[in-house]
């Protein structure tokens, strides 16, 4: 614990006591080492199979290939990550459109407007959103959201589509944005608010003009964490988005400017990196084949992406934090 | 300065009330958006699971009158607040025509609402909120507190009984019999002895004793943990596979046990202390030692003696009574003796014994086997009895105990009325056969039983692993790890690493499980142990952080007090820090287990099968889990699966989650009240 204690010799030097102290201390060290070993094991497992994948399949084709077909009936195996990246980015951006504004507004409401009692009710209820199993969200998207959207806004929507899945991913990550942002906003000292009021500002102006800028590092880092969560989300997209790894057709618009129609992307099936992994594992589990190794390459890609985003979020939260 | 002043004015000067109001409402709307959306979805899934959309209005009306109205009446009586009563009656009475009118209007002029009737909308928008609010208000008064407390014990006890039942599906009762009789019982005896004689070396052997006991409890025909005795068991077709393992584990255990036993006997004789404790310890040690030597002798030289007598093992009922009812009754009575009086303790013991032993035998009358009944009765009777004694002692709100009777009566009367009236009840998906049947190709026959058993098995294993690892790591980081120097750097790296592990997507943990546990270490694809280890690593960061917070909340003054008394670091941790922090640790642990029970992606990655027809009977067998089954069913094209069976599964999973979280919240509230 504290420094003064660590100078003392708290391991008494008599027989059984000493054995006991050593045993229990050692046991706890082993426990702590397990966490470190987990990271090493993840890196090792992913790297091991990724290396054998790279030996079989050129890495440039993997990173730039436009087609993904790991299990074609007799056809050639193609492992281009681009369509999967496209699907992942679509889901991430669409869900961010839902989660980031709603999460931020929620955080502002909880930290600035809500009474203590309202906050005591709202906060646990928001936590429930994060506690619902993701497979249940996927089921909701497939069975309730998609038919509702088909019946009202988009009659041409396919049963499996990116929009419902992204909606649910967005709702799932709202609490992540709101709780971290709210922590950052609550950390803004009251003097700043008082100063704002002293200058004649309204509550709205203090909230948006003082509190949000002062806590912007926390808000941005919560955004990055939420996006990283959306990238790694698996079950919602597996259940509700289908598995069609093709890039959308590029249409020609006015003056022959090529564009991608959002409906082609959002209302149709798509495939994310995580869905591709789940699809491969449905076919091959024993190992040694290229698709099996490709799955680990995708996993490594995912692992590195989320790790980098996590680190960036940490750096932002640390470096740009306003010290009061 | 002047320029800046101008600038500030343009930003802050224009006071607009409307803008502020709109913004406040907008942000409030944003806060409740997700919650409302989830609420609507939950309503739909509950309607689907109970097939309420096909329920006739008469059926709903009957249960509304026999079940809901008495419940609301009880809560209003407890709240004893005329204003609240008036509001509740107004809402229930006025909501009915309002909802019905609006619904009929919408249906006539705009469009029909799919899957809902006005009765259901009334039920979910008026009755459920009113009931919840009234229930909340009622539970804060003595009468309601007693009623809900009793109800909670009954429900919780039943859930616990179900858990016992499932654990005995997985871990064979006979293996448990051995583990208890030769493992836990002597181990606890040793622990008790070493507590009385703290300087004795016996306590060192407590841990190996428990480990050996758990080896016995695990399905013992496993090559990892047993040394096989080369013998021909072919003459025992049924029992051969587990007896083989059991004997080898027994041998190991007894060998471990005999050493401390011999030491204890030697000491007891040498010192010739005439204190009672020493005598008890000596006798105990003698018994253990003799058992050990006989056991070793028999197991090593004449195993046929055990093998041929296998038919004389007590039946499951006897095993439960011997290994669960008796020790738990004694423990309960002992606790009562400490807290109340010896007389009350005797009463408690007799009542519990009577209820469980006689009650379980009597259960055959209604067609429940005694061995099932004994588990449920035991799990329900102990907490209920202690609660009732508290209520009787407090003399406050005793009338609240009628609540369970009221509800049970409501269900029975409702069923009778429905039967006499000739109303056809809806074909509920989430019924008893759904909970007890295996999967099937026909949605109506499909059941959730193997998935429930699998989930309980997984969660039990994850709970054990993550408790040990999580608390161990948290204690290390908070109590042992240095803050400065090189060690401090390592500590910081550990801490950062844990934070990063928490952000790794669950599907990547699945790959870890597949590559490491399933393929490299050979635990097998889709087995319970692979799943449990993977899920343990997945929730480890969460459980570590929550345990750390709980440990950090223990004030330093308590630690320093303990050190000042001359306690070592481990003694301080064990006697001061952990008892103070245990409730916080448990709360965090249950919440993180809630995360584990809903995870699906890692289970898919480690090859959980799409459907298994029998629940697993050991940790090395392939298993399935509730979320996995939901995933499999939801990808089925049959609408009976997609709308019926999955909805029932989702509701089951959510109820389990709700129960877990409620437990966590109850533990936390109790902790806060004490603090």
From TrEMBL, chain B:
Domain of life: Archaea
InterPro entries: MetI-like, MetI-like_sf, Phosphate_PstA
Stretches that traverse the bilayer: 26-47, 59-77, 89-110, 116-138, 150-171, 177-194, 201-218, 242-265, 277-299, 319-338, 350-368, 374-391, 398-423, 448-477, 498-517, 523-545, 643-667
Every ABC transmembrane type-1 domain range: 452-664
UniProt GO cellular component terms: plasma membrane
Transport keyword on record: yes
Keyword set, alphabetical order: Cell membrane, Membrane, Transmembrane, Transmembrane helix, Transport
Record-linked SUPFAM superfamilies: MetI-like
Localisation: Cell membrane
Database matches in PROSITE patterns: ABC_TM1
Membrane topology: Multi-pass membrane protein
Pfam families to which the protein is assigned, alphabetical: BPD_transp_1
PANTHER family: PHOSPHATE TRANSPORT SYSTEM PERMEASE PROTEIN PSTA, PHOSPHATE TRANSPORT SYSTEM PERMEASE PROTEIN PSTA-RELATED
Similarity field: Belongs to the binding-protein-dependent transport system permease family. CysTW subfamily.
Name this polypeptide is given: Phosphate transport system permease protein PstA
């Amino acid at each position: 614990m504290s420094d003064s204690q660590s100078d003392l010799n708290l391991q008494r030097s008599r027989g059984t006591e000493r054995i006991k102290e050593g045993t229990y201390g050692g046991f706890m060290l082993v426990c702590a080492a397990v966490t470190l070993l987990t990271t090493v094991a993840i890196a090792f497992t992913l790297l091991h199979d990724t290396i054998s994948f790279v030996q079989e399949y050129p890495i440039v084709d993997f990173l730039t290939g436009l087609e993904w077909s790991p299990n074609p009936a007799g056809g050639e195996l193609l492992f281009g990550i681009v369509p999967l990246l496209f699907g992942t980015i679509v889901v991430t951006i669409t869900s961010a459109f839902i989660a980031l504004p709603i999460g931020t507004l929620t955080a502002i409401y909880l930290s600035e407007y809500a009474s203590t009692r309202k906050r005591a009710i709202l906060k646990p209820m928001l936590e429930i959103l994060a506690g619902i199993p993701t497979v249940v969200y996927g089921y909701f998207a497939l069975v309730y959201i998609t038919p509702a959207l088909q019946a009202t806004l988009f009659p041409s929507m396919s049963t499996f589509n990116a929009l419902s899945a992204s909606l649910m991913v967005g709702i799932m990550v709202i609490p992540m944005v709101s709780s971290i942002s709210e922590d950052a906003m609550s950390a803004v000292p009251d003097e700043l608010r008082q100063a704002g009021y002293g200058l004649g500002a309204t509550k709205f102006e203090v909230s948006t003009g003082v509190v949000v800028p002062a806590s912007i590092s926390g808000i941005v880092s919560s955004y990055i964490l939420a996006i990283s969560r959306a990238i790694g989300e698996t079950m919602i997209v597996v259940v509700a988005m289908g598995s069609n790894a093709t890039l959308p057709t590029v249409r020609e618009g006015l003056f022959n400017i090529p564009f991608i129609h959002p409906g082609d992307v959002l209302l149709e099936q798509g495939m994310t990196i995580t869905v591709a992994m789940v699809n491969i594992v449905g076919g091959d589990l024993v190992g040694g084949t290229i698709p099996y190794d490709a799955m680990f390459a995708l996993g490594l890609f995912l692992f590195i992406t989320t790790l980098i985003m996590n680190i960036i979020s940490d750096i932002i939260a640390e470096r740009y934090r306003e010290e009061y | 300065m002047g320029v800046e002043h101008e600038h500030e004015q343009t930003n802050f000067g224009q006071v607009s009330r409307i803008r502020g109001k709109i913004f406040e409402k907008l942000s409030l709307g944003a806060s409740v958006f997700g919650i409302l959306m989830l609420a609507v979805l939950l309503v739909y899934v509950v309607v689907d699971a109970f097939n309420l959309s096909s329920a006739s209005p008469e059926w709903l009306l009957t249960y509304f009158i026999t079940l809901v109205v008495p419940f609301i009446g009880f809560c209003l009586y407890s709240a004893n607040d005329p204003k609240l009563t008036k509001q509740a009656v107004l809402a229930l009475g006025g909501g009915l025509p309002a909802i019905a009118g609006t619904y009929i209007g919408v249906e006539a002029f705009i469009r029909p609402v799919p899957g809902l009737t006005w009765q259901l909308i009334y039920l979910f928008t008026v009755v459920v909120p009113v009931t919840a609010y009234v229930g909340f208000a009622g539970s804060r008064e003595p009468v309601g507190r007693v009623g809900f407390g009793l109800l909670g014990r009954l429900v919780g006890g039943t859930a616990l009984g179900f858990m016992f039942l499932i654990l005995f599906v997985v871990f064979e009762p006979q293996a448990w019999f051995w583990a208890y009789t030769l493992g836990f019982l002597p181990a606890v005896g040793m622990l008790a002895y070493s507590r009385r004689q703290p300087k004795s070396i016996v306590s060192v052997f407590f841990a190996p004793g428990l480990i050996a006991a758990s080896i016995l409890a695990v399905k013992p025909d496993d090559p990892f943990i047993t040394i096989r005795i080369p013998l021909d068991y072919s003459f025992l077709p049924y029992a051969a596979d587990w007896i083989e393992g059991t004997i080898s584990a027994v041998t190991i255990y007894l060998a471990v046990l005999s050493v401390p036993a011999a030491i204890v006997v030697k000491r007891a004789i040498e010192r010739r202390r005439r204190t009672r404790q020493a005598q008890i310890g000596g006798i105990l040690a003698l018994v253990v030692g003799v058992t050990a030597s006989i056991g070793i002798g028999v197991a090593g030289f004449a195993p046929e003696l055990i093998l041929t007598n296998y038919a004389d093992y007590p039946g499951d009922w006897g095993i439960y009574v011997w290994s669960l009812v008796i020790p738990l009754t004694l423990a309960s009575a002992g606790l009562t003796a400490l807290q109340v009086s010896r007389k009350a303790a005797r009463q408690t013991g007799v009542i519990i014994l009577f209820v469980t032993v006689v009650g379980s035998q009597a259960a055959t009358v209604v067609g429940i086997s005694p061995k099932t009944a004994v588990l449920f009765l035991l799990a329900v009777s102990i907490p209920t009895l202690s609660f009732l004694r508290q209520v009787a002692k407090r003399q406050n709100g005793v009338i609240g105990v009628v609540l369970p009777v009221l509800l049970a009566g409501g269900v029975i009367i409702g069923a009778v009325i429905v039967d006499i009236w000739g109303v056809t009840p809806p074909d509920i998906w989430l019924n008893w056969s759904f909970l007890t049947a295996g999967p099937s190709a026909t949605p109506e026959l499909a059941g959730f039983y193997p998935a429930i058993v699998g989930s309980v098995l997984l969660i039990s294993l994850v709970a054990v692993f993550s408790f040990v690892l999580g608390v161990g790591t948290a204690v290390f980081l908070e109590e042992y790890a240095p803050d400065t120097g090189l060690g401090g750097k390592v500590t910081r790296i550990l801490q950062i690493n844990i934070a990063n592990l928490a952000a790794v997507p669950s599907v990547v943990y699945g790959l870890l499980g597949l590559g490491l546990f399933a393929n490299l270490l050979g635990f097998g694809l889709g087995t319970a142990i692979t799943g449990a280890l993977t899920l343990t690593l997945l929730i480890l960061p969460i459980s570590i952080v929550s345990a750390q917070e709980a440990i950090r909340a223990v004030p330093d003054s308590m630690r320093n007090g303990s050190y000042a008394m001359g306690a070592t670091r481990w003694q301080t941790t064990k006697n001061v820090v952990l008892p103070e922090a245990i409730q916080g640790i448990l709360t965090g642990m249950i919440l993180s287990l809630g995360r584990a029970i809903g995870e699906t992606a890692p289970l898919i990655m480690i090859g959980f099968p799409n459907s298994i027809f029998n629940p697993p009977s050991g940790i090395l067998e392939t298993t399935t889990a509730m979320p996995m089954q939901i995933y499999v069913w939801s990808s089925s094209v049959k609408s009976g699966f997609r709308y019926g069976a999955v909805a029932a599964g989702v509701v089951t999973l959510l109820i389990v989650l709700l129960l877990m979280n409620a437990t966590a919240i109850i533990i936390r509230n109790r902790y806060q009240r004490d603090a």
